[in-house]
Design brief:
By secondary structure, this protein is an alpha+beta fold. The protein has three domains: about 5-45; about 70-140, 2-Layer Sandwich (Alpha-Beta Plaits), CATH 3.30.70; about 155-240, no CATH class. It has helices at about 5-10, 15-30, 50-55, 85-95, 115-125, 145-150, 155-175, 180-200, 210-240, and strands at about 35, 40-45, 70-75, 100-105, 105-110, 135-140.
């Protein structure tokens, strides 16, 4: 994206040009974005692991298996105060992979991911988990720990969230064609980004811990809404010569959304 496109797009959301340019400079210095010889910006190396995770929202359901009742557990010793940023990166890694805290320095999730120990450890490490953290696959927990583990997530809250987002996508999809271009761009970006964030951060829990069918229905509705949103933004992107895909494949880029 050229900086002119970023500044023009930011203005749609009430962000002043100077503030946008300062943000771009800070992201560039942090390695979150990178600049090519033409002055165009793209995702940088520091943001690549999370970016790849975000881009995988369309195929997230393919990453799960039928749950047999086991668990993945991560144990990490306490970090000294000087390594507080490492603690934040650890929290991000665990959250993106659907882990929830069971006890101090101990997090777990159902063992329903299509991943072996090596691939899961590699993904956690890329997202920020310390290399000395302990990753364990457990076939069962004692009854008290099992009950506490199953209570870490609320099936009812997840179901309500899926249904609210489904209704919001349907209402917006019906409305976008009647809105002026700028309003349609803002609405599709904000709502689409919010639901993408919801799915990226979804723990991908199995039945009976979560309503899998409702989650799949939301993902399907979002894929349809994403195509609508891309059409809404197509003219703007074309004016700035920015890459645009109207019918994305699994590897195609999505409009950027905040995850942390």
């Amino acid at each position: 994206m050229p900086v002119a496109a970023l500044v023009e797009a930011a203005a749609l959301f009430g962000i002043e040009a100077n503030a946008q340019r300062v943000a771009v400079a800070r992201l560039l210095a942090a390695g979150q974005i990178a600049r090519d010889l033409r002055g165009h910006y793209r995702i940088g190396a520091a943001a690549a692991p999370v970016d790849r995770r975000v881009l995988g929202w369309r195929r997230a359901e393919d990453a799960t298996l039928r749950w047999q009742g086991g668990w993945w557990l991560v144990h990490a010793g306490r970090l000294p105060p000087a390594r507080a940023p490492g603690r934040r990166r650890r929290g991000q890694a665990l959250r993106l992979l659907g882990f929830a805290p069971l006890a101090p320095d101990l997090a777990l999730r159902p063992d329903n991911l299509r991943a072996d120990l090596g691939s899961l450890r590699g993904e956690l490490a890329l997202l920020g988990l310390e290399p000395d953290a302990l990753l364990v696959r457990a076939s069962e927990l004692d009854p008290d720990a099992e009950a506490r583990a199953r209570g870490l997530w609320s099936r009812d809250d997840l179901e309500r969230g899926y249904r609210r987002s489904l209704a919001a996508l349907a209402a917006s999809e019906a409305r976008l064609a009647r809105l002026p271009e700028a309003r349609a761009m803002v609405e599709s970006f904000l709502l689409g980004g919010r639901v993408i964030r919801q799915l990226v951060l979804d723990p991908l829990l199995p039945e009976p811990l979560a309503p899998e069918a409702e989650r799949r229905a939301l993902a399907q509705a979002l894929r349809r809404y994403d195509r609508v949103g891309r059409r809404v933004w197509a003219a703007f992107l074309a004016r700035h010569g920015a890459p645009h895909v109207s019918h994305p494949t699994h590897g195609a880029r999505t409009l950027s959304v905040p995850i942390a």
